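anyone seen this seq b4? input:
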Amino acid sequence: MLVTLLVVALTACRGGDSGASATESHLDAARGDSARAGAVPERPDQVAAWNAMRRDQSEGRPELGMGLRGLDRAGAELAGLDLSGLDLREAVFKGAKLDGADLRSTRLDKADLRGVSLAEAQLDDAVLDHAQTSDIDLHDARAQGLSLRWVGLDGADLRRADLRRADLRGASVVGAQLEGADLRGADLRGADLRGVDLSEVKVEKVDLRGAKASAATQWPVGFGSPLALGVAVDGVTASQLALEREQLGTATGP
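predicted toks r here
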């Protein structure tokens, strides 16, 4: 009987130690996440050291990205910062200066990017889906394969941006500046293009099915009929127009 009681007591002690160890592990992980977030530069003079560290530890980038969701660097001046490949979903960079930054393959879903300056930044294959992007500055940015699904680009500066193969499904481009932008091969299905000036934009092989345009939307010279590409112009689609013409022809008769 005494032996049995001793075994039970030892087992309970070990279980308690295990629980304490698990708790300590969670705390250590939380401290590590906090440390990683704290290591992200807040001032321009910290950028060079951070970028050097990232180059030296390039194999550890996925681990480094943990715990950076919701990072707040609103208004920070961090030109040239290397944030490539990090998980920055729901981060706050409102009004920040990130000109020339490296955000290739970075996750910025639902991030607050209002008024952010990303001029000449690298955003190839980055994900900004459902982010707040009004007044964002992406002029001269390299952003091939950038995902901007379901964002509002009112007041955005996309002049001369390389947006080849970008995913802009469901995005509102109303009010954006697009002069000289390259949208070849981009996916604009369901995008709002009403009143947008596309006259100086490269739009070859763009998927426009379900996009919305208006009589005020300007297309490149020789672009052809947007209706034929599946665009609804002032709420009218090609199929609706064909049906109306058919009905009109039937009504008038020979």
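The domain at 40-254 is CATH 2.160.20 (Pectate Lyase C-like). The CA atoms of residues 85 and 106 lie 4 Å apart. kinda curious what u guys think
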